[in-house]
């Protein structure tokens, strides 16, 4: 996840020990498939954890009375705060056809809400180029560095084609991967895992959304 400098500073100062990952995101996915069984879009929901949501609202001077309720204007001011992506950033979402990555557009139709102390955003991403056959495609939401932890927390929806469905495959937690995860969790907030020789493990810990389609 790409975040503002001010928020990064707050995180560095406020995040306690055992701070990897720093941000937790419940992820929702809606797969949009056309009548011919081709995947055309992904609609993605990010529901940020309460602590990170608090940091963002404090960073922006929102909710000055600390009642946990934002006005419509305050919510509107948040819209797009997490969509200022640098060139080359893949939006922490990968769509795969086997080992081939399918290019996706930048974020479209961005929305933002605030509920029960959490910022919840949605955005749409279109397949660039020819839409591929949806059958067998895999979507993986993850941050390679595991700075942000994404978890597919709700049923994946399929829109536009009743012959297709999606299932969530959990990561294969080997003993080595569990040990690496524990090593990461032991780092303080100011330590870069790469500086102490730890590899990027975000992809290995990612949920996989596997799409299957019946013959029409």
Can you describe this structure in just a few lines?
With 216 residues, the protein is α+β, with helices and mostly antiparallel strands.
Verbal overview:
With 216 residues, this protein is α+β, with helices and mostly antiparallel strands. The protein has one domain (5-213). It has four helices and eleven strands. A hairpin with a 2-residue loop joins strand 5 and strand 6. Helix 1 (5-14) packs across helix 2. The protein is globular and about 55 Å long. The termini are far apart.
Give descriptors for this structure.
alpha+beta, disordered N terminus, DUF1007, signal, 6-stranded mixed sheet, 5-stranded antiparallel sheet
**Order of SSEs:** HEEHHEEEEEEEEHE
Number of helices: 4
Give the low-pLDDT segments: 2-18
Count of all domains: 1
The end-to-end span amounts to 38 Å
SSE-based structural type: alpha+beta
Q: What portion of residues belong to β-strands? A: 25-35%
Number of strands: 11
Signal peptide: 1-19
InterPro entries: DUF1007 (IPR010412)
Pfam families: DUF1007
Keywords: Signal
